[in-house]
Amino acid sequence: MFKRVMFTALLMITAIPISFAADTEKDCTNLVLDYAYYRDRPEPEKFSKLFALNGSLSVGGETWVGRQAILDRLEDSRDGPVYRHLMSTIRIFPVDADHATGVSYVTVYNAPPDKRSVEGFAAIGEYHDNFIRTDEGWKIESREFVPVFFYGDEN
């Protein structure tokens, strides 16, 4: 009987971190996928709410801090090129109950709004993320695009 109780207790203790890690990975992976989905639509309001209130987004040497700045950035690009972010190799690393980091690969395609043909990818790179659990759930605390390959001339 004692062995059964100890085994059950041990099982419960070890199941907590596994469940915690699985939930964190799932929630943060969904943020990565939602980022691409809302960015490509574009749906600026939903896109900006993926970030913590003071979250940051760094792309192409520019950084936007705070939901409003991130919202404005996407609003300003509504009449620009059409984008598609193809996400792959998403790895989430729980740090503690309220923090996680992640790396995801992305291939980005774009085309002028009036012409949907592309000659190749715009960029292939990685997003380096820090996630934080807030009262609203998991959010992106910081996201940085790190280019790996460019199509054609990178200047």
Q: Bin the strand percentage.
A: 35-45%
N→C terminal distance: 71 Å
Give average pLDDT, whole number: 86
Q: How many beta-strand elements?
A: 6
Total separate domains: 1
CATH class: Alpha Beta
Describe the structure.
With 155 residues, the chain is an alpha+beta fold. The protein has a single domain (2-150), classed as Nuclear Transport Factor 2, Chain: A, CATH 3.10.450.50. It has three helices and six strands. It has helices at residues 2-40, 44-48, 67-76; strands at 51-59, 62-65, 82-96, 99-111, 123-134, 137-150. Strands 2-1-6-5-4-3 form a six-stranded mixed β-sheet, with helices on one face. Strand 1 and strand 2 (62-65) form a beta hairpin. The protein is globular.
Keywords, separated by commas or semicolons:
155 residues; Nuclear Transport Factor 2, Chain: A; globular
Concise synopsis of the structure shown:
With 155 residues, the chain is of the alpha+beta class. The chain is built from three helices and six strands.
